[in-house]
Amino acid sequence: MFIKMEIEGKEQFLKDTYPLKIRYAGAKSPYVKQVDQINNNKKGNPRQLIPVEGIWANQFVTDYSLTVEYLLLSVEEIVTPEAYQMMIALIEMAPQVYLISKKTMQQISESGNPAGMISVCEFPKRSLNQLALGPNSLIVVMDGLEIPGNVGTITRSADGTDVDAIIITNRKTRLTHPKFIRSSQGSCFKVPIVEATYDDVSEWLMKRNYQIVLTDTDGAAPYYEPEYSGNVAIVMGSERHGISREWYNQPYQAVKIPMFGDCDSLNVGIAATVILYEATLKRKGFLKRR
Q1: Which residues, listed in sequence order, are joined to residue 254 by a DSSP beta bridge?
Q2: Burial bucket for residue 188 (CB in 10 Å: 0-12, 13-18, 19+)
Q3: Contact between residue 83 and residue 77 where contact means Cβ atoms under 8 Å apart
Q4: Fewer CB within 10 A of the terminal residue: the chain, N end or C end?
């Protein structure tokens, strides 16, 4: 019934159903401007708010019970049963809902296909001490990665390989970047992610007896040589600068992916995926090299 209503009827239905939540917002509304500012990194974002667009991405918002700050809706674009169901779910989660025009929605959309909804949520924040990991855990450390798409790809691969946590040191890209959220395919809401300094991370790993594996094109061993058993932290560095030198000031094993062409290395997202699957398949007993 809702889907077949005219715009005015849809808006009235929502106002009648959720009288304390529904408000109107124009293109100059601070809520609309905030989404544009976050997407384009125009201002500071100390609370790490993230705009989540469309049905598919917002499914992760509901699945992982993210904190929704507010919801922007263009009811003109709610035209499928799936969109309607997601809209209702998000309205239930949001303390405030602002109705905006289709034109305004398209102007602030980063994906170009928001399906009439943008929820503004808090990115899940964690500290090292909040990581409740068992005695046989696998961690990925991303050190100084600069491209949000690569960070998202590694996060997606971490989810696919059952990695227990991601730690980011020497951060060069923001976790609220739309390309990170999109390229992670929503896995950034599932896999615990912590930002910390090298000193704090190094101390934390050493106290918990982690084997540190550095990925290095000059590494002494091929990536398939280690057994990756016990507590393991795999450190990935940026494509331009590699891993920070301070990581080499402690016990570690450096591994490399053999290259048989003219290029000396793979894209860091691909390299991480190769090594993570090697580690996980061995840890789960699906792969034996000897």
Answers
A1: 214
A2: buried
A3: yes
A4: C
- How does DSSP assign 189-228, residue by residue? GTS-EEE--HHHHHHHHHHTTPEEEEE-TT-SEETTSS--
Which two three-digit tokens encode residue 150? 């690569």
In which region does residue 72 sit, left (phi positive, over 0), alpha (psi from -120 to 50) or beta (all else)? Answer: beta
58, with CB counted inside 10 A (0-12, 13-18, 19+), is: buried
User: Is residue 288 assigned to a domain?
Assistant: no
Please identify, among 65, 95, 122, the residue that sits at the C-terminal boundary of a domain: 122
Domain-located, residue 290:
no
Note whether 50 and 123 are within 8 A (CB).
yes
∠ at Cα 40 (38, 42), nearest 5°?
A: 75
- pLDDT tens by residue, 109-160: 988 889 999 999 999 989 999 998 988 999 999 999 999 999 999 999 999 9
**What average pLDDT does this structure show over 187-209?**
96
State the virtual CA torsion across 200, 142, 63, 74 in degrees, nearest 10.
Answer: 110
List pLDDT tens digits, range 160-190: 999 999 999 999 988 888 889 889 988 999 9
Helices (H), 51-177: 54-63, 81-93, 102-108, 148-160
Partnered with residue 168 across adjacent β-strands are 142, 195
Q: How many domains does the chain have?
A: 2
User: Which residues span the domain enclosing 15?
Assistant: 2-122
